[in-house]
């Protein structure tokens, strides 16, 4: 755990030091679980959003975009179930006076069992060397199977208790597992209570006539209430999807782990409307399609896994998470849910308006079923950033800190460096910047020795450094250095655009899907 904690602290401090993420209102001592994306962070975030949008909307003829308002009519949240059922189970420790989510305490306990399994694997790897078969070991080792069974049994019991709203059993489970307060080590717990996560606000000028509103806790409802508008104006035929990215707000009591769980965050969601009875096939299809999108970024298949839900939301007939191995263990990155016709039927009921589709193929009118894919943009940012941050030992005995961001997502694609600040080299470097900036985000850097500039760009995640030297004056060629391998090549200035394009082009990355 300590090692994980150290790695995570490095991620947080690196994000600040290199202009990716700042604490919100830091000069006023900040606001808990609210963050600002800095000059590099805003570019990385935009690139992740674009990468998702291109794969989801541009590459699918039958998926279109939407940008719904954050404020919605309050009945929306009654219809969606958020007013009655959008709660977290909370528990207080009487000694430390700290409040926790009961389900997160239990999940963290199971996470420790996963860490024990990892330890067993590492020990066995050392013992057996090349002959080690990880799959077989995980499937047959009695200790590993014991940890696995225990973890599954705990999560199953918790899922059932939460579904039955048996909060007394959730508390009993915490006591049986002897879970202690992470802060004080105390086992002195209160009962578990439900807490609604929506932020309330008011619409209107005077206190007497103001309408009670909520900041949206998810973006999906904006899609559902616009289903018919989009279908008719876009002449969409089922199956079709509506995609949206945007802010959502949750009054998280236990917001923590940096940008993993925030009070103001951004979602990238797509609701796919299908004929009733076909939802299971589409659900499986979208599970695979979404996993392929993640894998196209080359962050290691071993860092992803599916987690099928024991506890299904009241509206779902199937649900799975794509989990990613964050520095603090495997956690949810994206959800794929088969939501049946709950949403549209519920909005039909509360609004009194028909939200149906006439299907000419089967000559029938019906309320479509929905398969949802929903990913947190901030979580995706954290997954990419934490996975890319590496310390490397070099042959000369030194180390370097390098941010190996997938080149397609990197905020700055190339830095242009004149070897010295004289002899006309800065002028040529500036010309190269002026030419390349039409196609890419590029940086000009002339301060310090060239080796230090390389290190700085490595740590900021820039895939290419282009060095202009005295030979450039004679032969119009420059040295291009690759961040990941540190390999250097001599190339013509005229070839730079094509070399960079090949490495950062969205098409070349998405074609891997």
Description of the molecule:
The structure is a single chain. Strand 7 and strand 8 (211-214) form a beta hairpin. It is built from 18 helices and 23 strands. The protein has three domains: 1-72 and 197-389, BirA Bifunctional Protein, domain 2 (2-Layer Sandwich), CATH 3.30.930; 87-196, Herpes Virus-1, CATH 3.30.40.230; 412-510, Rossmann fold, CATH 3.40.50. By secondary structure, the protein is of the alpha+beta class. A seven-stranded mixed beta sheet has the order 3-9-10-16-13-12-11. A five-stranded mixed beta sheet has the order 20-19-21-22-23, sandwiched between helices. The radius of gyration is 26 Å and the shape is globular. The mean pLDDT is 91.
Would you identify the CATH architecture of the largest domain?
Answer: 2-Layer Sandwich
Arithmetic mean of pLDDT: 91
Please count the helical segments.
Answer: 18
Task: Compute the CA-based radius of gyration.
Answer: 26 Å
- Unreliable stretches (pLDDT < 50, length at least 5) are none
Which superfamily, in CATH terms, is the homologous superfamily of the largest domain?
A: Bira Bifunctional Protein, Domain 2
The CATH class of the largest domain turns out to be Alpha Beta
Largest sheet: 7 strands, mixed
Please count the beta strands (DSSP E, at least 2 residues each): 23
